């Protein structure tokens, strides 16, 4: 009986992980969509190439908790509209919180997160960029990053690479 419950649990977890990403996977097969997908196995492999020093350790710690990185871009207006529809549908079911939005004369950028195990972690980051300038040839970008994303590690690495950012490094 325990084996059956364990098998059902594993199947449900696998299905849940698949269902989270499958809503965007349909764009991968479209001709007018450029796709970049980095899987959990790739992150595990990257984590093995630990650099030297403190910064290498920080990258290693950050990468080992990532599950997937997906980017879908298009310059096809119809697909761009479909991407927007799919993102809006996903937002209703995925319980993501808007982190920020930016609008200028060229584009709208919206960034959403899903809470993680505590306030310093998120389990998903979703960014949607839509082009406002070219109505006849509208562009769109979906970026999805999932895993155990430690905001403190990202902040520390960002501070190390942005000179004179006004952000004080923690010692």
Count of beta strands? 6
Structural class: alpha+beta
Strand order of the largest sheet: 1-2-6-5-4-3
Gross morphology is: globular
> Roughly what fraction of the amino acids lie in strands?
25-35%
Instruction: Work out the radius of gyration.
Output: 18 Å
Portion of residues within helices: 40-55%
Main pleated-sheet profile: 6 strands, antiparallel
Instruction: Provide mean pLDDT, rounded.
Output: 75
Any descriptors?
5 helices; disordered N terminus; 6 strands; disordered C terminus; 171 residues; 6-stranded antiparallel β-sheet; alpha+beta
Walkthrough of the structure:
The chain is globular and about 50 Å long. The protein has helices spanning 2-25, 40-48, 53-63, 77-94, 151-161, and strands spanning 33-38, 66-74, 97-103, 107-115, 121-131, 140-150. The chain has a six-stranded antiparallel beta sheet. It has one domain (24-161). With 171 residues, it is α+β, with helices and mostly antiparallel strands.
Topology:
Elements: H1 2-25, E1 33-38, H2 40-48, H3 53-63, E2 66-74, H4 77-94, E3 97-103, E4 107-115, E5 121-131, E6 140-150, H5 151-161
Antiparallel strand pairs: 1-2, 2-6, 3-4, 4-5, 5-6
